[in-house]
């Protein structure tokens, strides 16, 4: 691990001690920290568009007193003098705000459920090496995307004595290769140990796939088609469930796309979904420092098994919590595999669409479970069990009660780990482990 | 902004062709009340400096939130090293021409800053909002959100730029969920976070807010028993709070030159527009006039200078239906030899600027609202966006709204629920049939337009009159 992380951990611990020592007897505090030192390099046409490094960290305090709570977030620099001054200033701000707030009947008090310390060191490219390592053997290919690399930290501590520290060094190369006719193959090379041979093999595989994309494009008219979704496409559909579906609060407040499951409706018995923190890519503790179960079934053989419930929701609705995040979204989703072998996919699909990726999904009718979105990147027309040609992108509009319900025909016997690559404000951690799936009568509208 | 940025710049030891320091400090006060109970209250502060260096025709950057001379020098060294390490693979040989030596300042119009209201005042108002929204037992959820932000930016450079901009913003969102007999409907205050403006807490005038909330609650209940939007092809009338989304997705994004250049093809996507289309493409009907205008003080995306230091001006992008100019910064302009605008914008100190919208507006036409509706034999009117999806070339789209009304023989006859429509950008704008006059114009925006690798969100404003489009495919929800 880098010197920076050692400095951050030491300063975070000392800052925590100072803040906790400053509490009065009727105050309780949760201290959250997130930080990263990231190298970002952006590519277009196998050239570098922008490249740089960002060192950023934030501490968030949640003060609880007399049935009231408020938060304050401020920059964390690793310099104890600077951070102590900012921490105490923000503690004082919270003391000024709290008495002005109404009582909060669902305020959650910090608990000590045990501490953790996880550090995963990686072997990353140095910022000086990265461009050459990535581009030198790229050859004459239109390569576009983002390389992200460096340490990420999540930490949490509270006045009940609980401490968590999670640090990991990772890289993600999220890229597309694009033909002159603008058809593309998308792929991700990610991990903790950059291995040049492995990287070059990955690139070679993408170049090979690109050859198929150079075939003439087929325009498929709107209609219902047998459709195979590769794991990356399934991951896009699953991600929608974190947006007003698996959340208990959304269930209770009329906003869940899965509400019909609670009313007794079932999906296909082939469809099972769970949170599985054994995947090891993301900390088990949430923003309050609560530790989630290692495995939590959400949908078991088509039936709703659990929703994601954070402590606040649990208190408000009198249900059991399961240490979900504040937004009650999935953090370590796993869709269970089925029986369809890789070599049987196009044979069983027979004639229809093979979709590698989807794009820009949104609920078109959330209560009906209906999702609209686009096909994107390597998507093909398959005829009589053979991949024929890439398709002109299509818009779909279909209910999950159909494609994970009566129209789900098969799930692959393999899964892929699809990493979370979002970098809004900060780098995301984790990902979803998902199989591919074969669906009949999937509706394309435009 | 106590840190002396100019002094820090002067102290840097660097053998570069150019260096710029961009400091951003932002404080966000957030207050959320749900069902008249406090949900989240607090403030977030972020502060840091991005050092940008030009060497061998390539820019490199390094950003840090630790504002001292040692940290800034280390960041400058890293930025310089990145420029050198990537120069042989740069997309363009840049010069200091893309970083003008501009001096100036900008400040949002603020009548009442944040501290004009106490935390108790704000949470009290939001609680009242929830109470007002709950017009019936069929309302199962009420929510009230208010965010007040102050952003201070300073940009200094080795060729003499010195810009200070202070931006105050207020973002609000009020909404309800109504439920009865297995039907659920939501209604909000003109769509998801659409009410976002530059200014102070004078934008939170209680009586106006509560009046709107009464209507929001009543319309949510009204939607429970409304008919589904019919599936048909008809005249579509869009209110300004849906036009903003239509402009944003099907005009703004496809005109961004960095998308046309291919920078976004791995993430946000490309564009159906090509460089050859500027000055030539008929984008829409002759009634279509689109301006890029960061100079309208209350709109969310206003500023005087972009993050390269270029002075911001109002420009027509589409005039009488014809495409004439793209949304391209100085960097994109030299890469394409195409006219652009001052739109090089970063979300904060920790992201590099890219081509963005600012305020993108549809200029008013000549129809009054009443004249427009009276002229329509059959049509559907839609308000307030609730669903949006468009392809990566910004061509094929499907959008959904909260509230619809059927138009028959020049009159509104029924309320419609789950109104959706779909189309293809160029055809859709070609079918622009009527544009409302200034009396129908309303200003909205979005605080969270996502784009870029690494990802960043930016704040943009959109003003539009009511518009009518002929022969559009409309439809309802799940049967």
What does this structure look like?
- The complex is a heterodimer of chains A (446) and B (479).
- Chain A has 446 residues and is α+β, with helices and mostly antiparallel strands.
- Chain A folds into two domains: 3-127 and 147-171, PmbA/TldD fold, CATH 3.30.2290; 223-444, no CATH class.
- Helix content of chain A is 22%, strand content 40%.
- In chain A, strand 2 (47-65) and strand 3 form a beta hairpin.
- Chain A starts with a helix and ends with a strand.
- The model of chain A has no long low-confidence stretch (mean pLDDT 96).
- Chain B is globular.
- Chain B is of the alpha+beta class and 479 residues long.
- Chain B has two domains: 5-225, 2-Layer Sandwich (PmbA/TldD fold); 228-475, no CATH class.
- Chain B has helices at residues 5-11, 69-86, 119-133, 206-224, 240-252, 257-261, 330-336, 369-374, 425-430, and strands spanning 18-34, 37-55, 58-64, 103-107, 139-157, 162-180, 183-188, 195-198, 227-228, 232-238, 290-292, 315-319, 322-323, 344-345, 354-355, 360-362, 378-390, 396-408, 411-417, 420-424, 432-435, 442-451, 456-464, 467-475.
- In chain B, strands 1, 2, 3, 4, 5, 6, 7 and 8 form an eight-stranded mixed sheet that branches. Chain B has a five-stranded mixed barrel with strand order 10-17-18-20-24. In chain B, strands 13-12-11-16 form a four-stranded antiparallel sheet, with helices on one face.
- The mean pLDDT of chain B is 97.
- Chain B has nine helices and 24 strands.
- In chain B, strand 22 (442-451) and strand 23 (456-464) form a beta hairpin.
- Classes of the chains: A alpha+beta (446), B alpha+beta (479).
Which labels suit this protein?
heterodimer, A: 446 residues, alpha+beta, 7-stranded mixed β-sheet, 40% strand, B: 479 residues, PmbA/TldD fold, 2 domains, 8-stranded mixed β-sheet, 5-stranded mixed beta barrel, 24 strands, globular
What radius of gyration of chain B results from the CA coordinates?
Answer: 24 Å
The greatest inter-chain interface is formed by: A-B, 89 and 78 residues
Quaternary: heterodimer
Biggest beta sheet summary of chain A: 7 strands, mixed
Residue-averaged pLDDT of chain A, rounded? 96
Give the tally of structural domains of chain B: 2
Shape of chain B: globular
Secondary structure tally: strands of chain A: 18
Q: Total number of β-strand segments of chain B?
A: 24
Helices and strands of chain A, in order, run as HEEEHEHEEEHEHHHEEEHEHEEEEHEE
- N→C terminal distance of chain B: 57 Å
End-to-end separation of chain A: 51 Å
The helix count of chain B comes to 9
In terms of DSSP E residues, the strand content of chain B is 35-45%
Mean pLDDT of chain B: 97
Largest sheet of chain B: 8 strands, mixed
Which percent bin holds the helix content of chain A? 10-25%
Low-confidence stretches of chain A: none
